[in-house]
């Protein structure tokens, strides 16, 4: 692990977020719970987590929010919060966007 961010007892907040994301997909709500940070603050950290992941040859992957009923994907929505309702079927069961960290070698590297 790079020690550029320093490291206290149990690692910094970002390291904990990073480790959680390495263990598998998580929503902002999951991350909020596991590091004890408000969900909206998790968003700000994710940008930095994505950058340092790239520096270590990894990347932050994302699955967009999706409607449970008709599978509509909220591709353009980059916010972390869950949309209120589906524009296509008006369904209100929306799966939250999920994030995880994967080795960059396993995916395309030509995106920025
Ligand atoms: Zn729908």
Features:
disordered N terminus, two-stranded antiparallel ribbon, 112 residues, alpha+beta, 3-stranded antiparallel β-sheet, binds zinc ion, single chain, Arc Repressor Mutant, subunit A
Would you mind describing this structure in some detail?
- The chain has 112 residues and is α+β, with helices and mostly antiparallel strands.
- The protein has a single domain (13-105), classed as Arc Repressor Mutant, subunit A (Orthogonal Bundle), CATH 1.10.10.
- The chain has three helices and five strands.
- The chain has helices at residues 13-22, 28-35, 39-55, and strands at residues 26-27, 58-63, 66-67, 94-95, 98-103.
- The strands form two sheets. It has a three-stranded antiparallel β-sheet with strand order 1-5-2. Strands 3-4 form a two-stranded antiparallel ribbon.
- It is globular and about 45 Å long.
- Mean pLDDT is 83; it is low at 1-8.
- The structure holds zinc ion.
- Zinc ion binds at residues 67, 69-70, 72, 86, 88-89, 91.
């Amino acid at each position: 692990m790079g020690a550029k961010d320093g490291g206290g007892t149990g690692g910094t907040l970002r390291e904990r977020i990073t480790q959680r994301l390495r263990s598998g997909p998580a929503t902002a709500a999951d991350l909020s719970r596991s590091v004890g940070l408000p969900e909206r603050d998790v968003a700000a950290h994710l940008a930095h987590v994505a950058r340092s992941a790239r520096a270590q040859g990894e990347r932050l992957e994302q699955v967009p929010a999706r409607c449970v009923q008709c599978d509509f994907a909220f591709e353009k929505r980059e916010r972390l919060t869950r949309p209120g309702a589906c524009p296509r079927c008006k369904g209100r069961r929306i799966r939250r966007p999920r994030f995880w960290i994967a080795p960059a070698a396993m995916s395309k590297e030509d995106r920025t």
